[in-house]
Amino acid sequence: MTRYLRFARFVRLSRFWRFARDVATQTPLIWMILALALLWLAFSAGLYEAERGAAGSAITSYGRALYWGVAAFSTAGIADTPRTGTGQLIGGIWIVVGSILFFGTIVATVTAWFMRPLQRPARQIVETIEYNLERMDDLSIEELDLLKQTTDALIEHMEAMKAAKE
To answer: Sign of the CA dihedral 11, 13, 16, 17?
Structure first.
């Protein structure tokens, strides 16, 4: 039983790492996180400089500015309001840019992940169709009907694409 559990754990971990590698290489996740982190550091530094020494400002250190940056763009609603006009301008821009990048990263990653099968090279699609056509004798009536519907839809789509180009 122990061997089986180790093997099952290994399979789950290898699937996770394969998934993580695919997400990192096939989606914009890494670049978006890097851009978000760099902008977060820069805007936090700018906010700290603008708020340093301002009367009544809660942003008294770079660490607090970093915390403010996360609280502001994540729309948590717990970020202190900057006191200076420059701090408010920097903070407002960061809230917009950070929110767009943060939520954009999530949307872009999920979209890119689900669009991957549609971006396969044409040759791979043709080889898959040829392979399935060779196995047609093994298909049930329902599977043949589904194949016919899929083929008809593909033909209609290709005709529509040709008509749009003309």
So the answer is: negative
